[in-house]
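Students often ask what a 'structure token' actually looks like in practice. Rather than answer in the abstract, let us consider Transcription/translation regulatory transformer protein RfaH, a protein of 160 residues. Its sequence is given first.
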Amino acid sequence: MAWYALQHKPAQAARALANLENQGIECFFPEIDVETIQQGKRRMRREPLFRGYLFINLELTDPVWHKLRSTRGVVRVVSFGNRPAPIADEVIEGIREGLESAAEAGGIHKGDKLEILEGPFRGLNAVFQEYDGETRAMVLIDFLQKQHRVSMDLDQVRPG
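Now compare that with the structural description of the same chain:
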């Protein structure tokens, strides 16, 4: 079996995936979490790693090949010289490993403990609450027997 790339119709990745999987085809649709800023707030959004494409794992002799072009959501099989272009298993495995390591790196999430490195609260511990624009974070600091919400630059804190 080998991996092949399929081009799907715009905004129809989910439809193509569902229809391909209903035919018993192993599919891989790599997605990543992307931070965007909307109305001054950071938001996480899932986006395809390769916009417009997904991968299938099939034998060239599989009888399902003649159905691929008529599968709803699918535009075409990526081919060279009228032959589907195979993708090495190592490439797909590398993409999967990259996605896993990116998910582990992730960034700062609500509830993460932080150490304050600079400013008047240097040396204190804080708890991350949310992003406050592109370069700032809203944190909770225990100070004078009370929790205070403070906005500070992201370069003033580190996970700890």
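One point worth highlighting: The chain has two domains: 2-105, 113-159. Ask yourself how you might have guessed this from the sequence alone, and why that guess would often be unreliable.
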